[in-house]
Amino acid sequence: MIKLQNISKTYPSSSGVFYALRELSLEIGHGQYIAVTGPSGAGKSTLLNILGGMTRPDHGDVLVNGKQLYHLSEKERNEYRRVKIGFVFQQFHLIPYLTVYENILTGTSGRNHKSNIHTLLERFQLENKSKHHPSQLSVGEKQRVALIRATVSRPDMILADEPTGNLDQENSKIILDFFREYHGEGKTVILVTHEPSLSELADRVVHLRNGIATFV
Amino acid sequence: MNLFRLIIKEAGYRSVSTLIILLTVVIATLVAISIFTMSKASEDETRKIMREQGLNLFLFPKGTETIDFFSYDYSATFDEEYVDILANSETFDAVRHLVGMLQLIVPGWEDPQGRKHNILLVGYKDEAIQPYLNRQELMGTDVERGTVRLGFDISRFIPEESLFRIRGEDGNIHEFLITERMEEGRGMLDQGVAMNLQDMQGMMNMSGKINKIEALGCVCHDGRVINARRQINQFLPDVEVKELASIANARENQRLMMNKYGSFIIPFVIFASLLISGFLFYENVKSRKYEIGVLLALGSGRGKVIGLILGKAFMLGFTGAILGFFAGTGIADYFGREVFEFTAQNIRPRWNLLFTGMALSPFIFMLASWIPALIAVRWDPAKILSDT
After folding, report:
1. Considering only A169-178, B12-21, B158-167, B249-258, which range has the smallest mean pLDDT?
2. Which residues of B touch A95 (CB under 8 A)?
3. How far is B308 from chain A (nearest CA, A)?
4. Alpha helix positions (H), chain A
5. pTM of the prediction?
6. Per-domain residue ranges for chain B?
7. Do A83 and B294 touch (CB under 8 A)?
8. Mean pLDDT of A67-82
9. What pLDDT sits at residue A61?
10. Nearest to B1 among A87, A94, A106 (CB)
11. What part of A 157-216 touches B (C-beta under 8 Å)?
12. Torsion sign over Cα B299, B305, B311, B316
């Protein structure tokens, strides 16, 4: 269970202060599928970063299973990100000099995930590309590698920031099917998206505008 | 993912940047090694030339008028024990190669043809071992009892296979086996005979006495003779020290100049390379901003990021030290032979420098990359990833 209470986050801007989030309160139960929608600059990515333990809010509390996330030490927050969270980004963020297999390993916490990686590579039809570098992959393949990296450790929650923004329909379907399947296993999925059609798949939709949340 | 593998992969991916940093390390090491090697070669050469000059400090009984030293009847002496007192001192280090001597002009020596000559007799005590100083190759003229070495001019008068004969103060003829006939050009010894000190003392009725100690002054920054006088007079106030000024002064000055030059240029080069490589490491870290952001976002700790940057500096420092050592030694060898004609034969690999370099260089270049590493771990991964 994650509980956000009166979260605000500002950034300095040329016109003074930009409010990314204003007094946002939100509860995310275990195993929920939530879509976060809204126009550009509405605070969607900031919300994801705060949930992921990467961006400390200016005000408010973030409680993960009753513990203040930002009262944890940096080491504990790293551990939280490594074990509990799987990030999927619109730009994939693969490391260019590592192979597919090695990129996936960067998402593991040191335990033996060899068989799990092979299963996922097979599931995403990448078994013959494990030694390829990102530059040798198509856009859809890159996002599939990023998805495997995010989920290889079986984290409790996936935070996906516009994961299909750069993909064609076929690849988008592969990604979304996997999210549905992962959610079906009782895991939490939080999906940031511009596309209204994607939000239909979610249990709940949180719509953000100028940092203020509207719940659907 | 293994840190070492990540470093190797990144270094291979950014090969040009990595090679430029490595080149900086190699150049810094190369300059330091080549200057040090040449300066050591120069030092060795100085030492060698000083040794070839012979012993350059003479210890006489105080008040000795050296102008009268070789007079027929000159007899100022001191105890032979003085040599051992100096040699066995724990604090006396200004002088090496202590050789006690009795050196007298003997008038009326009769050669086998019956002609008379004034000859120089030199009785040598075996070179004293200084137990509290490092062992060095002996420079003294140790002569076995019952034997002599003949100077060139005297040798001409004595046929091969003959013994050397001389009448002692006791009136008896003393005979000695000739073990060496010296080459021409040994200075006063051309007209002299080198023998064992005890033989000479017995023959001249001067038991336990010597009139000179020869030694080699240390290469001291505060001057050989000043330092030696100060130390010797603490033990033996009735001894005075005279220096045989020689070409060794010029060679010593050259060595000191080389050392001063090295002591300026080596730290300068290391400091300059620290600055340059620090800048290059910063540029390298900046170009890795994106992947550092990814690693931090995926939960890698700041320690791992610091490890990646310092680890690369360590590996480049280590590799650079090895390459720099061989390049520096090669350059010292190649150019040293051109520039330092006399020191060329002493230019050789100083293997201790290789091990010192392998130990120091990684830490020096880790120091250079320390600030870039600290900057990198302060980056906000969320901001980095949203900017890309």
Report:
1. B249-258
2. 291, 294-295
3. 14
4. 44-51, 74-84, 100-105, 114-123, 139-151, 169-184, 196-199
5. 0.67
6. 3-49+253-386, 57-243
7. no
8. 92
9. 94
10. A106
11. none
12. positive
